Amino acid sequence: MEPQIPPPLTSDSLTFKVHRRQPELVSPAKPTPRELKLLSDIDDQEGLRFHIPTIFFYRRNPTACYSDPVAVIRRALAETLVHFYPMAGRLREGPNRKLAVDCTGEGVLFIEADADVTLVEFEDKDALRPPFPCFEELLFDVEGSSEVLHAPMILIQVTRLKCGGFILALRINHAIADAAGLSLFLKTMCEFTRGSHTPTVAPAWERHLLNARVPANVTQAHREYDEQTSARTECATGDGETLVRQSFFFGGGEMSAIRRLLPSNLANRSTDLEMLTSFLWRHRTAALRPDPNKEMRLIFIVNARPKLRNPPLPPGYYGNAFAFPVAIATARELTEKPLEFALRLVKDAKSSVTEEYMRSLADLMATSGRPGFNTDGAYLISDVRIFGDVEFGIWGKPVYGGIGTAGVSNLLECSFYVSFENRKGERGIVVPVCLPEKAMKRFVEELDAVFNGLVSTSKGSKSSNKVIMSSL
């Protein structure tokens, strides 16, 4: 029996009531073409056939006391759908599982809501980060809305708060857009809330640019799609143990401590995200305590847009344009070797994504039945800090903008990097993590040891960093 995820509320968590109106369909503000548009061979792979949730919190603007965010956003949404009209259609599946958008213009689901809570109450309860209290009330799962085919591709709920602020929660079918594509869609909505009449960056379909070649020619090793020859080992579910979600903040102090665990020449040639990713992979594996010979996989999502040159993708391309490169090591190797071992694997996986890699990946999808990536022993990382800049008109940038939870769809073993500012005003990255209860306790202890100077650095001395790990 699959373990049940407990509600993300504890006895002292924030509780509130949400009053929702009936969901409605918002269609494009003007007539749009009725046509069938094929997705790319990157879009319609099995691993992207799910809906992914995001959430944005906005403060009250005293000068906007006569502006209703629900009305403003509903109107901007209708205007945006004129330019992104395929998003108002429905997905269909054809031969060889090929996905296409039937541009019906039916629209996307929209929910108007009010909550008897203020933004300050979220902040006072340390609840302005995933997992969010009552998240299922802030993004209500309308029956049938999470289907991949024949359903609205976007669900939006705008919830007014007692203080005059509001929450925008959104769920989108991942097959139609990636994080960069969704960001473009939202930023276009923001422009319309400020009175624009045309998008600054015109959306571009052009999905044929990421279709398989003729003839198809798989030239790269795409180990992320290795066939799962046996039942998935449930190393991340604790054999029926209760799963818990928790967020962790990594600011300058934490990143300095991680850097000191590495040889200086390697640290200086690595990005913060590469170091953080290898660190989380290593310590999460240690906390899970899998069989030492268990093959552990780190899947690091890489945006391929800068890699594509022949031809390049247009600036307004909003389809999926990324790869799932994988780093692989046994649990023993990850936990017994120094952090630099994991970091080198992560850097190698990241650098493997080239233009030829993407062309080969499209060929693989078209010739292999559009498989999903191998999730056995996997930990998936995605950087969604791009959502921190979704500025809605007079309400400005969000207090929080990013993923709504740890884990998505049927893959709970994934985390997202979200831009965040803590109570001290320090900018950093907040990372939601989902683990079995005992493993989470060990994970916190692992991180606490590092950030309290209890773990040796690469030079054999004790780390002098005294920054407490923020377990949020």
TrEMBL record:
Q: Note the superkingdom of the native organism.
A: Eukaryota
The answer, when asked if Transferase is one of the entry's keywords, is yes
Query: In Gene Ontology terms, what is one molecular function of this protein?
Result: transferase activity
Name any one Pfam family assigned in the record. Answer: Transferase
- List UniProt keywords, sorted A-Z: Transferase
User: Which family is this sequence assigned to?
Assistant: Belongs to the plant acyltransferase family.
Q: Which PANTHER family match?
A: ACYL TRANSFERASE 4, OS05G0315700 PROTEIN
Q: What is this protein identified as?
A: Uncharacterized protein
Which species is this UniProt entry from? Microthlaspi erraticum
